[in-house]
Amino acid sequence: MRIQTKPVIALASGAILLGSVGSVFCQTAQAQSVIIPWTTVPLADVVGVATGPDALAVAYEVTENPFDGVYTYSYTVDNPSPGNVAFFTVDFNTGAIIDGEAAFLPGSITVGNANLGVANGANGITWAFLSDPISAGGGVSGTLTFQSDLAPETGNASATGNDNPPGPWASNGSAEQVAIPAQPPEVVPEPATTTLFALALLLLPFRSTILKRELTR
To answer: In total, how many domains does the chain have?
Structure first.
């Protein structure tokens, strides 16, 4: 009986040990490295300044999963203004790809208290609070997130209201910037072949004059 009991105990102990190791590994795998801690910036309304009483408080954070290199971008919107807010947009090209890495991972949008979050190509990601806007006087959006392969840089955010009382709200574009996925550098297009050919034709008369001067020397 003792000979049979020891392997059973050993197997049971091994199973417990493996389970503990697996649990620790899973917890470690889910750990996120904070790249940018929660940072709050103002988003001004169309008639106010960035620090005015109607400015939205937009907070953002960026974390990275060290095991797969995926970045999670998170935002919250706090509305102390007297107008409701129905849309919040983070401006970047969701279709951008750098060295095979995507600026936006499809299906990764979470909506917080929003009714909808949509990736709009070059127009970024918009979260819509259609049936339940971010209410005036202190309403909060909840956490709005998406994922990306790309590390953060800075970009613009914007917001607009709706027609519900006490009136619409809209940003004026002068807000401080928030974190967005890195975007490809702007490429200056090379001159078209036809343009170069036309320039060559224009230079022909000058070339003949230069040759004549050289021959008469």
So the answer is: 1
